[in-house]
TrEMBL record:
InterPro entries: Anoctamin (IPR007632), Anoctamin_TM (IPR049452). This is Anoctamin-like protein At1g73020 isoform X3. It comes from the Eukaryota. The keyword Transmembrane helix applies. It comes from Prunus avium (Cherry). It holds the Pfam family Anoctamin. One of its GO terms (cellular component) is membrane. The chain crosses the membrane at residues 115-138, 150-170, 238-257, 269-289, 309-330, 421-447, 468-498, 510-527. Residues 107-542 form the Anoctamin transmembrane domain. GO terms for molecular function: chloride channel activity. It is found in: Membrane. Keywords: Membrane, Transmembrane, Transmembrane helix. It is a multi-pass membrane protein.
């Protein structure tokens, strides 16, 4: 249980996997609390000087906010720990031999919960991909002839069961990690932010002050706020869906039709590349609109706002990533074209994204260093010689921050990393029967992605501000949604393969596919009841800790009662 920390009772508090008393997120919050809490408590203003600049530090004014407003302090951010950073480079980012094994506890200790959970998820997802990748390679290498229509449904059933089990076993892995890191009790989801009080806490105080002890009016006000927030979220979601259908859908269908008409493969690749760059512009606009809409929602905390942003922006990306593939698969029913589109999407988009996310930070950093050095050379009046930075802080300040491409007010760089993984998962799952080899491409990409993301965080970017999160949040719901979609799309692909004449007759084979779809949907929603989300040892530890906490509280209560009685007895004797 959570108690106020006291040095005298230090042995009673749980320690981190690395032996430290506080997690990185807790330490960073303490640092910020200390430096942002310096306030002028004197009776008069204080004159501060720096070089030739002079300004007043007024009574009751916070020092760091004053320094930031005067542009003396440009930014507050955590620095890399060079010893730990170099160790992680050797054991993680540059360690290619064991391609999916990662030092998750060390990542948690250095970066915090949210980033550690992302890499744990990516590592487990990549290991689990080895089975469908091997199955897909076998289907690609061997010609089964007339048995192909029998082998593909077996492959389809296998990967659906694989995805269902992966989703459920990830929940078990997530709970096991939290237990290992001693994170077992609800903690505010907005840790690590500076936004202050969220709507629920601030409005609760206002309502309590306004209505006092009138519980009926207080309850009515809370219900009004709750339903108003839900209506606002429904309105915003409707706006996004309507915009996608009316604006983005015609654009995507036009691109898919032009791609179908063009005969040259080189022109198709060029068109796809131009399209991928152009669509980013439209997505950025949609993301900015989503952020503005979220400001009018009464979300409970910052993480809820971030989840709302994830759902809205993923809707935009879902349309731009898959509608063209649906067009080729279900309308034109052209298997060869569909495979070419999938190969280009998997190779061109993912290779480009990996290149951009790893080269752009380096180019930005190099350009900033060049500008600073050029400025220092002009100030010194020298055009030759190497200019050194004054400190490591100045050098790290020039590095780009780990921020999201959309909605950086609510999300960090994990938004883009999770989005990339989710879009890949949807692509390989929803069209598995058309291109089984896609799982092998995804496996190779993810092995590279783990090391590239690690190198990016350790060498190319500033140390990210730690953010607390116990799960992957809205992304898990998106993965489960994609599993349901993949059941429907693959059944449609199998019907298309079986119904060669295009008559769509309900024959025994087609009927079997429809029955299989319904059975798989039942398995999807019933498997969660079969496999518990929490391992038995985690549940046993939680019960044991709850009993210890209850025992400790009972002892403290008895001691306090005994102390009160002893004090009362002494007072009675003295009287």
């Amino acid at each position: 249980m959570d108690l106020e920390f006291e040095w005298e009772e230090v042995d009673a508090f749980e320690r981190q996997p690395d032996g430290s008393l506080f997690s990185w997120c807790e330490r960073f919050r303490c640092y910020r609390h200390i430096i942002y809490g310096i306030i002028n408590k004197s009776q008069s203003s204080v004159t501060l000087r720096l070089d030739s600049k002079e300004f007043k530090w007024e009574v009751g004014e916070y020092l760091l906010q004053k320094l930031e407003s005067e542009r003396i302090v440009k930014e507050v951010f955590p620095l890399h720990d060079e010893i730990k950073r170099k160790k992680l480079l050797q054991t993680w980012a540059l360690h290619w031999w064991d391609f999916t094994n990662q030092p998750i506890d060390e990542i948690y200790s250095y970066f915090g919960t949210k980033i550690a959970i992302y890499f744990a998820f990516l590592g487990m997802y990549t290991r689990w991909l080895l089975f469908p990748a091997a199955f897909g390679l076998i289907l690609h290498m061997f010609d089964f002839g007339s048995l192909q229509l029998l082998v593909l449904p077996i492959f389809f059933i296998s990967i659906i069961l694989w995805a269902i089990m992966f989703s459920q076993f990830w929940k078990r892995k997530n709970n096991a990690l939290l237990a290992r890191w001693k994170i077992r009790y609800p903690i505010r989801a907005d840790l690590g932010y500076r936004q202050g009080m969220e709507w629920n806490s601030s409005q609760s105080i206002e309502i309590a002050k306004k209505w006092g002890t009138d519980k009926t009016k207080e309850r009515e006000m809370f219900q009004r706020i709750e339903w108003f927030g839900r209506l606002m979220r429904f309105r915003n979601d409707a706006i996004i869906i309507f915009s996608i259908i009316c604006l983005q859908l015609p654009f995507e269908l036009a691109y898919a039709h032009i791609y179908e008409v063009i005969g040259s493969d080189i022109m198709k690749i060029g068109l796809t590349t131009i399209y991928l760059f152009a669509i980013q512009f439209f997505t950025q606009i949609g993301g900015k609109i989503s952020v503005k809409l979220i400001k009018y929602e009464n979300n409970e905390n910052t993480e809820k706002k971030a989840d709302s942003l994830v759902y809205k922006v993923f809707g935009l990306y879902f349309m731009q990533s898959y509608i063209g593939v649906f067009y080729h698969a279900l309308l034109h029913r052209n298997f060869s074209t569909l495979r070419k589109v999938l190969i280009q999407r998997l190779l061109v988009s993912q290779v480009l994204e990996n290149l951009l996310e790893n080269t752009l930070p380096y180019l930005k950093y190099s350009y900033k260093k060049y500008r600073v050095r050029s400025k220092k050379k002009r100030e010194k009046g020298s055009s030759t010689g190497k200019i050194q930075f004054a400190s490591r802080v100045e050098k790290e300040y020039l590095k780009p921050s780990y921020s999201a491409s959309i909605g950086m007010e609510l999300e960090d760089g994990l938004f883009d990393d999770f989005l990339e993984v989710a879009l890949q998962f949807g692509m390989i799952m929803m069209f598995a029967c058309a291109f089984p080899l896609a799982f092998a491409f995804a496996t190779l990409n993810n092995i590279t992605e783990i090391r590239a993301d690690a190198l990016k965080l350790l060498a190319m970017l500033r140390r990210p501000t730690p953010r607390f999160s116990t799960t992957i949040g809205a992304w898990l719901n998106i993965f489960q949604f994609l599993v349901v979609m993949s059941i429907c799309t693959n059944c449609a692909l199998l019907v298309w393969l079986y119904d060669e004449e295009g008559k769509w007759k309900i024959e025994p084979g087609l009927a079997a596919i429809l029955v299989m779809e319904h059975v798989l949907l039942l398995i999807k929603f019933g498997f969660s009841r079969f496999v518990p989300e929490e391992p038995a040892w985690v549940k046993a530890d939680r019960v044991k800790d709850a009993a210890k906490a209850e025992n400790m509280c009972s002892k403290q209560l008895l001691r306090s009662i005994s102390g009160e009685r002893a004090t009362f007895g002494e007072l009675k004797k003295s009287q």
